[in-house]
Amino acid sequence: MAYATKADVEARTTRSFTAAEEGVMANLLDDAAILIDGCNAGASAAAKLAVSCRMVLRAMGDGDGGGIPIGATQGSLTAGPYTQSWTVGSGSAGELYLGKADRALLGIGGRSIAFVSPLDPPEAPAPGAAPAGEGAGA
Fold it and tell me: pLDDT tens, 59-80?
């Protein structure tokens, strides 16, 4: 179930979407809702609406790009011998994602992703715990 409508998205841009784009937008709005709920289903309705619109506009573009790909950071065009080249930023080529401001709106801005580095030394066992590889059944 989407948190925003086509009218909500269009109210945030000067662009009018074509009939062919409406189906894509509906699917993207549904996908955005799934991503939002996966991060914080308890966020406010206003935050869910705003973030949904922002995500879809990033994915679909504002329509004023003149053929420049969404997320392109630089590009070149030549007429002969028909060369075209674009550099596209990571994670911004027409896909749905939560930006830093979106995460803050949803109340998840301070969370970080945990990881373990193979270069970190292993944690010492708790006092009284059996060393690794010893104990019951070893």
Answer: 887 555 555 555 565 666 677 7
Phi, psi at 83, each rounded to 5°: -105, 140
Which position has the token pair 């070149």?
A: 76
CA distances from 51 to 9, 14, 30, 63, 127 (A): 10, 18, 12, 19, 47
3-state class of 85 per DSSP? strand
Q: Are 73 and 88 in contact (CB under 8 A)?
A: yes
Do 52 and 45 form a contact (C-beta atoms < 8 A)?
A: no
Angle between helices 19-40 and 45-60 in degrees, nearest 10: 130
In a domain, 125, yes or no: no
Global confidence as pTM: 0.62
**Does residue 69 lie within any of the structural domains?**
no
> Could you tell me the residue range of the domain that residue 26 belongs to?
1-63+94-120
75 domain-assigned: no
Please name the amino acid found at residue 130.
Answer: A
Cα–Cα distance, 70 to 88 (Å, whole number): 8
